[in-house]
Model the fold of this input.
Amino acid sequence: MNKWLDGITYHIDLQWWMLTIPGGFAILIDLMTVSSQSIKASWKTSVDSLMDE
Done:
């Protein structure tokens, strides 16, 4: 990747945290979304779920 970036006039050095921190935030948002949907579904009765279908 460094050889490819050397040919570009304006470039930045990629660090490991530039990919892992946003990836961690994305995973955290995914887990919160799935958890909230699971909790919401578990509080509903099965009859309500069947009536919606």
User: Anything to note?
Assistant: The chain has three helices and no strands. Residues 17-43 form the longest helix (27 residues). Residues 32 and 38 are 10 Å apart (CA to CA).
